[in-house]
Structures are given as structure tokens and as C-alpha cells.
Automatic annotation (TrEMBL):
UniProt superkingdom: Bacteria
GO molecular function per UniProt: metal ion binding; N-acetyldiaminopimelate deacetylase activity
Keywords: Hydrolase, Manganese, Metal-binding, Signal
Taxonomic placement: Bacteria, Pseudomonadati, Bacteroidota, Flavobacteriia, Flavobacteriales
SUPFAM superfamilies according to UniProt: Bacterial exopeptidase dimerisation domain, Zn-dependent exopeptidases
Name of the protein described by the UniProt record: Amidohydrolase
């Protein structure tokens, strides 16, 4: 980085830090805040919650969102894929182009919350909070739709399908070309066990993990348990592989860098006195950098290959690469923190730890810099649990932060 770039960034940081201090005491005074459709956001969230749809099948949800966006006025609605929606708000003055994204799909999970507005669809529920993401972005869109004359630039409200199922809906929307002019992407995810309505700013650079994995079939040779010399025991081979894989992180990855290899499935045999023909294993793998991602993949493949060959077994390996890590841009991150403080107060904004989950929001970095945040929804079970729920009082602060982030990006 040259001296001029360094000075410019330092100047920007100083300006934003001054703004943080200045706005921490006078938040919630913006005139537009009275236009937040608070009760409607709750109503929209409950409707979507009660009518969940799985990835790539969000037909009714996307139609519901599209109809609402059209009703707000000043928003052009396009459908880049069959079940996604983008609302485009063009301000009265020329300027930059920014996008805020919410995901709409539900999970194949039977709801166990007991809510009056529980899912009507068996084995499908919004156990991850995407109903809240969609409702908040609708609230943001409606609030900003009344401010066309004050907006300098263009806002894309991205209601994305299929975040929960690889290869992910983000890829399809990107390939459609609908977002090619966007200069910055923002997103927000609800998380339990943070104070209600508090906004967390995830770390610079890797804000989440990658999501890879593998399925492995070890082909041995069956035999009677009393005659092991006539067989090739896939259970022994699999056990040795599981143990060896524990060294991938502890002896290959740089100490302190987040990485996880979890063997979540090991199935083989059905009788205590029979050596089976095969064993099946499956794993989940999390890393935060591309070099480590490649290192872990190579070590896993080498270990599996060498151990199976040493025992005279064969194998079939399907190594699955899914979402990369979200990369939070340092300048967008600082701006998001400044904006959140301005909107909801310094006491309600915190520096969040890296998410150890993965998100296809990461793909938008192919187009422009990204910034992903989290919203506290109170104590409760983790996302994807059948009993997952949220405190709806958090939603208004989510909308406040989203609106302020968009306005500040366009005006800075």
C-alpha cells in the first residue's frame, strides 16, 4: 500500500471514529425512524414463519415479497431467478449503488416451538431465522421507499433463495447479471444468546468459515469374526483413518488459526461376529483461509489413500467443497459500526466473534466488497434447532441499522 492510500484510509478511519463518538448520544433522532413499519414487520415475519418453503421452492414466499415491494411505491421489482426477488430503489440524485441481502428459505426441520403462528407445513420450518431477515429487509425497503428524494444513488434489496442448500442461491443470482453494478454488499443474520436488538460487527477479513466435507466408503473383504486373516476389516481401516485425521489440525495448521475436522458419521457392520465388507464415513470441515482450506483437503486425501492401501482395502471418496468464508471489508466494517451506533446507540453495538458457521453471502465478494453483521435476539437455543425462536422486539433495531447503513454508504 502506498503512502497516499495509507493516509486516505487513516483519514477515513479518523472521520468515522469521530462520527461514532458524536452519534453515540444522539441516536434515534432521525426523522425517518418514525416511518419504520414496526407492526407490519412483525406481521410479515409471522406470515412467512407460518408458511415456510424449502430451498429452491420459495414460490409463495417470493411472490409474497414481490407483491409487498410493489405496494410500497418507488421500487422496481425484478425476478433474477424463479424464486428470488430484487427490489430496486433509484434515488432522485445520482450516486453509488449498494445492496442489502436477506435470505428467504426454510429448513427441513419439524417445528417444536408451540407458537400460535407455527409452521403449517410438516417437516419444514424457519429454524434459522430467515423469516426475520426477510421481514426486516421489507421494513427497510418500505422505510426507504418514502425517502426517494433524499437518496443519492441506487439501493438493491436482494431477497435471495436457497441459502441453506449448496450450491446456494447467491451463485444463481450472480450469474443472472442482475447485481453486476453493485459496489458494496451488506447482510445481517439473527443469532441467539446476544442481547435483544444489539448489533454485532463481525471481524475484518474472515467473518465466517468455509463449509466443506466428504463422504467415504471403505471397501474391505468380509469374513467370519473367528477367521480375520481371511478378510480385510474396513472398521479397523476406518478407525485408523479417524485417528490419523485428528493430526491434520494439530500438526499441520498454524496454531491459533481456526480450523475444524469433525467425523460425524461412521457406520459399518450389523453383527458382532462378522467382519463386514465396507464402512461408511462422513465429515464436516471448517477453515477460514484458502491456503489452509487446500492444505486440509490435501492432507485428508493423502491420509485416506495411504491408510487404505496399507491395509489392502480400496475406497471411494467424494470431497465436497461448499461455501467459502465471508470476507468482511475493513472500510465497510468500520462504516457499518459507525452507522449502527448512530442508529441504535453505542451501548447496543458490539464487536462480534467470527461465525463458525458458513454462509453463501460470501459469494457476493466476487462482485464487490462485503460486510456481514449479526443481530442479537435474546437467550435461546441455537439456529437450526426445532425449538428455535426469537424475541420480535429485536426486529426494529435491525431495520434501524439496515436503513442507516444504506444511507451512510450512499452519502459518504
Amino acid at each position: 500500500m502506498n503512502k497516499v492510500s495509507t493516509l486516505l484510509i487513516a483519514s477515513l478511519f479518523s472521520t468515522m471514529l469521530v462520527a461514532q463518538n458524536k452519534t453515540s448520544s444522539d441516536h434515534s433522532t432521525a426523522a425517518w425512524m418514525k416511518n419504520i413499519p414496526e407492526s407490519e414487520v412483525v406481521e410479515w415475519r409471522r406470515h412467512i414463519h407460518q408458511n415456510p418453503e424449502l430451498s429452491y421452492k420459495e414460490v409463495n414466499t417470493s411472490n409474497y415479497v414481490a407483491d409487498l415491494l410493489k405496494s410500497f411505491g418507488n421500487i422496481e421489482v425484478i425476478r433474477p431467478t424463479k424464486t428470488s426477488v430484487i427490489g430496486i430503489l433509484k434515488g432522485s440524485k445520482p450516486g453509488k449503488t449498494v445492496a442489502f441481502r436477506a435470505d428467504m428459505d426454510a429448513l427441513p426441520v419439524q417445528e417444536e416451538t408451540g407458537l400460535e403462528f407455527s409452521s403449517k407445513n410438516n417437516n419444514v420450518s424457519h429454524a434459522c431465522g430467515h423469516d426475520a431477515h426477510t421481514a426486516m429487509l421489507l421494513g427497510t425497503a418500505k422505510t426507504l421507499s418514502k425517502m426517494k428524494n433524499d437518496i443519492k444513488g441506487t439501493v438493491y434489496f436482494v431477497f435471495q433463495h436457497a441459502e441453506e442448500e449448496a450450491p446456494g442461491g447467491a451463485q444463481e443470482i450472480i450469474e443472472s447479471g442482475a447485481l453486476k453494478d453493485v459496489q458494496a454488499f451488506f447482510g445481517m443474520h439473527v443469532l441467539p444468546n446476544y442481547p435483544v436488538g444489539n448489533v454485532g460487527i463481525l471481524p475484518d477479513a474472515a467473518a465466517s468459515t468455509t463449509s466443506d466435507g466428504f463422504t467415504l466408503t471403505i471397501n474391505g473383504k468380509g469374513s467370519h469374526g473367528s477367521m480375520p486373516q481371511l478378510g480385510i476389516d474396513p472398521i479397523v481401516v476406518g478407525a485408523e483413518i479417524v485417528n490419523a485425521l485428528q493430526t491434520v489440525i494439530s500438526r499441520n495448521v498454524t496454531p491459533g488459526e481456526m480450523a475444524v475436522v469433525t467425523i460425524g458419521k461412521f457406520q459399518s457392520g450389523s453383527a458382532p461376529n462378522v467382519i463386514p465388507d465396507k464402512a461408511e464415513l462422513a465429515a464436516s470441515i471448517r477453515t477460514i483461509s484458502q491456503p489452509t482450506r487446500e492444505l486440509v483437503e490435501n492432507r485428508i486425501k493423502t491420509i485416506i489413500d495411504n491408510i487404505t492401501k496399507a491395509h489392502g482395502a480400496t475406497y471411494e471418496l467424494d470431497y465436497i467443497k461448499s461455501y467459502p468464508a465471508i470476507q468482511n471489508d475493513v472500510v465497510l466494517n468500520l462504516q457499518a459500526k459507525t452507522s449502527a451506533i448512530k442508529a441504535i446507540g453505542k451501548e447496543n453495538v458490539f464487536d462480534a466473534s467470527r461465525m463458525t458457521a458458513s454462509e453463501d453471502f460470501s459469494y457476493y465478494n466476487k462482485i464487490a466488497p462485503t460486510c456481514f453483521m449479526v443481530l442479537g435476539i435474546g437467550d435461546g437455543v441455537a439456529n437450526h434447532n426445532p425449538k428455535f425462536n426469537l424475541d420480535e422486539k429485536s426486529l426494529k433495531n435491525g431495520v434501524k441499522a439496515e436503513v442507516q447503513v444504506i444511507l451512510d454508504y450512499l452519502n459518504n
